Amino acid sequence: MKKTLIIGAGGVGNVVAFKCAMNVQTFGNITLASRTVSKCDTIATNVKEKTGVTLSTATVDADSVSELVELINTTQADIVINVALPYQDLTIMDACTQTGVDYLDTANYEHPDTAKFEYKEQWAKDQQFKDANIMALLGSGFDPGVTNVFCAYAQKHYFDEIHTIDILDCNAGDHGYPFATNFNPEINLREVSAKGRYWENGSWIETDPMEIKQVWDYPEVGPKDSYLLYHEEMESLIKHIKGLKRIRFFMTFGESYLTHMKCLENVGMLGIKSVEHKGQKIIPMEFLATLLPDPASLGPRTKGKTNIGIFAKGVKDGVEKTVYIYQITDHESCYAEVLSQGVSYTTGVPAMIGAKLMLEGTWQAKGVYNMEQFNPDPFMDELMTQGLPWKVMELDANDTRRVDT
Ligand code: NDP
C-alpha cells in the first residue's frame, strides 16, 4: 500500500486531505503534518466523520530539513504533497532528495524577505532530483496548475501554434467581510501589490500594480473588472508553448478590495521589512495577516462562483481560431463537500490529481517538471470526475470575451 505525506494544514491542506481520503485506494496511508498539529487533528476528525478514512497527524517545522527528513523516514512516504507556504519549497525539496521521495507543490518558491517569485531556484534542483531518481511536479494547483494543463490541452487538440494566451481568473464569491483574502493573506497581498508583468515578443513588460484593467465577460458570472498581474505559470509556459507571441494574466478585484488594499499600502501595512514597535520588531504584513480572517474560516460564509480559464488564439491548418477553456466552481458546493471555500478547493483538488497521476505512474519522469510538460489528457479526465468539470468554447477568430474592446 502507498504512503502519502501532506505538509500544511491550512485551507488548501484541508481540501487535499479530504480529496486524498476520497481516493484512499491510490493514496493508502495518509499523514497530515504541519507546524500546528491541532489544525491537522481538526481536519483529521472532519475527514473521518465525512469519509470514514483515518489520517495520521504529526507536527513538523518545514523550514528544517532535518525535521522533514525524520518525518519522511518515519512515515515511509512515497510522495510529499507540499501545501505549506512557498517559503518552505526548497527545504521540502531538499528533504525529498535526501530521502528519495517524489515531491509536489502548488506555488513557486518565494524568499520571505523579497516579494519576488520565480522558478529559478526550483529548476536549479533538476539534476539533484535526477541524481536521486525521483520527480518534482511544480505548481499543481489551479493557477498555476490547471491553467498550465489547459494550455497544454489547447496546444495538443486545437492548435498547430498558439500565438496569444490570456489567463483569466475570476472569483465572484462574496464572504461578507469588508476585507479578507481567499488564501494565505501574506502570499496573496504580496502577489497583488507587486508590479504587473506580461510577456510579448520575447520580452517581459513591466506595469505599475493594477495599471492595466480590462472588462472580461465570464460565463455564468458576467462582466468583471480584471487587472493585469504577474503570475508564475507564465514563466514556464513561455518555454513550453510553441509559437507563443504574448501571454498575460488577469484577475478580478472589486472596488472595495482595491480601496482597502491601497489604504493598507499607503499606511505601510503591506511592508515586509521589520519595524520597531514599543521595543519589539514586527513585520507589518505579518501583523496584518494576524488581524485578517483565516482563509480556512471563510468556507461557511462564502457564496457565488469562481471562473478560471485560458483564452487562446492561434492557427490550426492555416486558419486562425480562438479557444476558451474554463472551469466554474460554486463556493457553497465546495463547503458542502469538504468544508472549504472554492479557492482552497480549486487549489487542493488539482494537487491531489497531480499526486494521483504520479503515484499511479501516469505522470512519471525523473527531475523537476512543470505541469504543461506532461500529457494533459489524463489530468483533464480526472478534473471531470474529481469535482472540477471544465468546458471548451470554440470561437471564431474575431470573437472576444472582452466587453471593453
Ligand atoms: P494557509 O496559510 O491557510 O496554510 C498554510 C499552512 O502551512 C498552515 O497550516 C501553516 O501552519 C503551515 N505552515 C506554514 N509554515 C510552516 C512551517 N514552517 N512548517 C510547517 N508548516 C507550516 O495557506 P493556504 O492553505 O491558503 O495555501 C497553501 C499553499 O497553497 C500556499 O503555498 C499558497 O501559495 C498555495 N496556493 C496555490 C494556489 C494555486 O492555484 N496554485 C491558489 C491558492 C493557494 P500554521 O497553521 O501553524 O500557520
From TrEMBL:
Q: Which UniProt keywords are given for this protein, alphabetically ordered?
A: Oxidoreductase
Classification via InterPro entries: NAD(P)-bd_dom_sf, Sacchrp_dh-like_C, Sacchrp_dh_NADP-bd
Q: Name one GO molecular function term.
A: oxidoreductase activity
Q: Which residues form the Saccharopine dehydrogenase-like C-terminal domain?
A: 141-387
Top enzyme category: oxidoreductase
Please report the stretch or stretches of sequence annotated as the Saccharopine dehydrogenase NADP binding domain. 5-137
**EC numbers, comma separated:** 1.1.1.-
Q: Which Pfam families match?
A: Sacchrp_dh_C (PF16653), Sacchrp_dh_NADP (PF03435)
Segment forming the signal sequence? none
UniProt-listed PANTHER family: CARBOXYNORSPERMIDINE SYNTHASE (PTHR43796:SF2)
The protein here is known as: Carboxynorspermidine dehydrogenase, putative (EC)
Protein species of origin: uncultured Sulfurovum sp
